Every structure is written in structure tokens, then in C-alpha cells.
Amino acid sequence: MDTLNQQISALLGEQKHYSRLRQLKTASIASPTQITINGNILINFASNDYLGLSQHPLLKERAIEAINKYGVGSPSSRLIAGNCELYNVVESHIANLKGTEAALVFPTGFQTNLSIMFALSKFNALLLCDQFSHNSILLGARWNKRNFARFAHNNMDELKRLIQDHSTENKSIWAVTESVFSMGDLAPIDVLLSLSQSTNIHLYIDEAHATGVFGKNGMGFVHAPATKNVTMGTFGKGCGSFGAYVACSSEFKDFLINFCPGIIYTTALPPPVLGSIVAALELIPHMVLERRRLLEQAIWLREQMIEMGFHTGAQASHIIYLRTGNDEQALSLSHYLSENKIYAPAIRPPTVPENGAGIRLSLSAAHTDADMELLLTVLKQWQSGK
């Protein structure tokens, strides 16, 4: 066995030893709340399709219209020949809904965060990131090690100390965080906005899990002219489609077009994807009842789980994280749920910190009361059998 294969084998063996070996499963999405795996239809509590829009007739209709008009692919970057006119429609919608001068569409959320963090190094920016920020943010920020620091999760006192420590340096300071974290807890957005107004810092807020669910028009928590602050969001979660966006000033948009590798060096989104995004952005502002029901469901379900003795943390969103702490326990619970027609994979390190394994439940407005009751029944059965 050559050295490379030995190294790979050792790494995979270590993953297996710690119950962290991951494998792909072939899945078929039957509906916003159902998934078929190995021929078994399960209630899907692992999807980010928070409003059930991925199966909405209008999104399908607009995607087909775009195919008929523009074709299925976009074989070029936006800067070369891939800037389809639908981009202008999407970006105009986003800027209007977010109250910013401009918006810019990217292919994926991961690429957006990674490449923007990299691009900010062009003007010697200091990036102060919440320690639980998405991996895409932290990977991008690490490109410039001397201008990167992390603060304890949601610890505004530590963030303020870091800002004060670096206030005399000749560089722009950016506080970087998420409004809704991937395990369901919320950032203190009001405090961050106040801090931005009272100091010279800039904010970069990832609204991937908030888009579609929270805020004015369902477009996240941050709505203000982006002279100092930048927000990003995705179309692959609450919008039911694919891709990502940045809402910002016109000048910052021009900066990204010229210096952000995630725009310069990648193929543009296919027209049918853009068509479906346009449809989602037309629908979401009017889905007030769906958002209300989703969040009411989450509150009720979380209360029931806390009564049962589960640890759900300080979450206040449509994402409920049941922390087991132990990788094997998380896998056991996930397997038991699957045997009882519920799909909710175990979340293990490095996605979460050591001893932080658990089950992440993503709720959708399309989930029925019967779906929720079955979930609670199965959880009670698992607890009684431990």
C-alpha cells in the first residue's frame, strides 16, 4: 500500500473508531416533508425547505419558462457571457426587499462566504468572527491569519473588547456572524446593529437560515441601507431553490465584481434556477400565515421536548437541536427515528463541538400536526427504551 492510501486508510479508520464515518445515501424527495431512502418513505425533518417552496407549482412553472426561453445551462461566468437578464430581476427584487442599494447573486452560500472573506483581505480588513460561524466563513477568514480572530459564541462583551483592542489600527473592522445559526440559536442582532452605529465597525451577517422565515417580508432580520453593513442569504433553504445573494451598497457590489473569486472564476447559475428564484421572491413576502404557523409549531414542539427531558439549548427558531452529547447516542436516536418512519440524521463533530453531538430537526410549514405528533411519540418510545 502506498503512502497516500495508508494515510487515507488511517483517517477513515479514525472516523470509524469515533462513530463519525460519513457515507452518502441515495435519496428521493417525494414532497416538502417526505423523503425516500432505500425504498422507505420517511417524514423528512432534515430538509431546509422551510416554507415547502421546492415543490411549489409557480417555481416549477417559472423554471420551465426559463428553459424554453434560455436553455438549461449557463456555460460561462457572469463576467464573460453568463449574465442572463434574469439576474437583474433577482437582484432588483433582493435590493428592494432588503432595503439596500444593490444586491449580487452567487452560485452557492458556501462559495459566497468563503470568497467574500477572502476578498476582504484586499483592503486589510480585520475579521472578528463568532466562533460558531459557518465553516465557509471561518475557512475564508483564515486566509488572512494576522487579521482574523474569533469571539465566544454570541459574547458581545468579548466582541467589544476585541474592537477596543484594535481600534487604533489602520484597518477596517468587521464583526462577522449569523442571524440564525445552523443549530437554531439566534444572534443578538439589535446589539450588533447598535454597535455598528456607535462605532466604526462593519457587520457581515449571514442570513441563510433566516431568509424566508424571519423579518420584514420574510427576508431576514437586517433591513437597512447597507452603507456599512453587508448581509448574505441563500435561495436553497427557505426559498426552495438554489444559489445565494449579498445585499449591500452599490460600491461594495462593484468591489465584489472586480475582486471576489466567487464571481470572477465560476460558471453562472442556470436560467431555470434563476426563474425559480424570481417566483420564490414574489411569493415569500405574502407567506405571513405560513411563517407564523412554522414558528408557532417550533415553540410548541420545543416545549413538549423540554417537558420530556430533552436538552434543546437556547434556541428560538424553526430549527430544534436535541443534544445528546455522545456520538453513539446521537446515532442510536437517529437510527431509531428512521426505523419509525422519521428521517433526522445525527450531527457529529466537527459540524458541532466535541461532546456536542445530537439530532437537528428542521421544521417546515408543510409539516402537518400528525407529523409532529408522530415525532413526539417516537421520541417518547426511544426514551423509555434507553
What does this structure look like?
With 386 residues, this protein is an alpha/beta fold. It folds into two domains: 26-51 and 287-385, Aspartate Aminotransferase, domain 1; 55-285, Aspartate Aminotransferase, domain 2, CATH 3.40.640. It contains 14 helices and 14 strands. It starts with a helix and ends with a helix.
Key words describing this protein structure:
alpha/beta; 14 helices; 7-stranded mixed β-sheet; Aspartate Aminotransferase, domain 1; 386 residues; 42% helix
Structural class: alpha/beta
Rounded to the nearest angstrom, the radius of gyration is: 21 Å
Number of domains: 2
H-E order: HEEEHHHEHEHEHEHEEEHHHHEHEEEH
Uncertain residue ranges: none
Categorize the overall geometry: globular
Measured as a percent range, the helix fraction is 40-55%
CATH class term of the largest domain: Alpha Beta
- Strand tally, please? 14
| Average of the residue pLDDT scores | 93
CATH fold field value of the largest domain: Aspartate Aminotransferase, domain 2
Please give the alpha-carbon distance between the first and last residues: 43 Å
CATH superfamily membership of the largest domain, which one? Answer: Type I PLP-dependent aspartate aminotransferase-like (Major domain)
**Assigned CATH architecture of the largest domain:** 3-Layer(aba) Sandwich
Count of discrete alpha- or pi-helical segments spanning 4 or more residues? 14
Q: Please indicate the percent range of residues in DSSP E strands (runs of 2 or more).
A: 15-25%
